Amino acid sequence: MPDSSPGKRAQRASKSPRAPKAPQAARTAGPVPRPDDTAALELLTLGDLEVEGRLVVASNATMYCQVRRGGHGAACVYKPVAGERPLWDFAAGSLAGREVAAYVMSRAAGWNLVPPTVLRDGPFGPGMCQLWIDADTSVDLVALARSSDHRALRDMAVFDAVINNADRKIGHLLPVSDGRLFGCDHGVCFSEEYKLRTVLWQWRGRSLPKRAIDALTRLQRALAGQELAAELSALLTPDEVTATIQRIELLLAHRVHPYPPEDWPAVPWPPI
Fold first, then answer.
1. What's the first-to-final CA gap in the chain, in angstroms?
2. CB 163 within 8 Å of CB 189
3. What value does the mean pLDDT of the chain take?
4. Cβ-proximal residues to 232 (8 Å cutoff; 6+ apart), any chain
């Protein structure tokens, strides 16, 4: 995903002959569904997917699309597996599954920080399909990323520690006008090695708030059952699932925000 707000991302979408008005469509896609709106998942999974443009500044093939079914429609982002750029530290063809796993974990914890995300087939083969978030472009993202008293932002810092996010940039923060905060671009997460790389280090070493402990406890209990573990196992390797469980256990044992890694760049580049 491009490292800017969705409004600017929409403006940078390529205007293909099939859809010269993709940016305008993004602005008129309608309200963002509530986090518990299962209709969004059904639409993303079963709807007809039409590519309207490409986000040309994204490192991987990232398509701006419309998805429609039964008179309902929404804007979305489609990232085909075939368009993933090879990485030395993540298995080829695994990024789409990691994006879905991030959504699954956010939902299970009750954070609801990741837009509804599914795996599905599309015009360029299997890939990740995620609801487009029309962010509030009046928000200063740099100031937001530096805030130390923003509840959802702090939740995101804990979430990133759980999924071992190696690329939390400022432009991956998607604040919306009703006060909610979403995050995007979770393809390089869930590594077995500690690779937390983020712009959200302002709480390092500080005690986790009670709501974070509650969310981590929910995750721990859910992973002890079969449903969540099965969902993750279909998206990640067994060792990655085990490492995720261990990160949750470590956070619950120490109850503090983690410190930057000593042998890994602490902040993504570029940070925006």
1. 12
2. yes
3. 88
4. 101, 104, 105, 223, 241, 244
